[in-house]
Amino acid sequence: MDLGIEGKSALVCASSKGLGRGCAFALxxxxxxxxxVARGAEVLEQTAAEIRAATGAVVNTVxxxxxxxxxxxxxxxxxxxxxxxxxxxxGPPPGDFRDWSREDWLAALDANMLAPIxxxxxxxxxxxARRFGRIVNITSGAGKAPSDVRxxxxxxxxxLTGFVAGLARKTVAHNVTINNLLxxxxxxxxxxxxxxxxxKARGVPYEQLLAERIATIPAGRIGKPEEFGAACAxxxxxxxxxxxxxxxxxxxxxxxxxx
Length: 259
Known about the structure:
The chain is an alpha/beta fold. Helices cover 47% and strands 15% of the residues. Helix 1 packs parallel to helix 2, helix 4 (102-130) runs parallel beside helix 5 (151-171) and helix 6 crosses helix 7 (206-215). It is globular and about 55 Å long. It starts with 8 loop residues before the first strand and ends in a 9-residue tail after the last strand.
């Protein structure tokens, strides 16, 4: 299927690896010019080179922390009028809420709620003026099935979800959609960190806990960043203009509910 976004531009946050990288690759394969943002310059440039070689797409890079005002300014200077915005940032560390300070909560809100909102604010009016825009926020499957050890992430990402639910109903009339992608168990460094923390807390080997988690997934495997990226690209397509304010869960069937 031709997704109808060839020639569009995209700003993809936290895209040097993991799910952001998967989204950048998928968009580039559709002929989208992508601007990658990540903190680590070396890995960022390596990813950019790989995307260029595999797709022939125009790829720009910005080595910056998207959570900071300076980082967002640098990203928007490189891609001031994106047609597509993929919001993404590393989640806060897991743990026990009794150990978290006010500063821990504020850091989580800055990264996983306020930074995406600032980028939406900076780009959505231009999308409305051009009559095309796709904003995708990478949140978490914990938004549907919260885990106690990921309380910082649960709180911040659900705050973003609530904000998006209102705004997305205003922008869709201008062919600007805003949706959230909720990853479950994917093969990323983030998941490895969470599993490692839980394994340590339980005093069991990492491999044991990993196998236990996979056993809870009806698909019988871990998700691939590439298939997450493909879902993102479709949600950014011309064909997806009637979908807004939604929370797409990609978890291999792990969530047991109907809604």
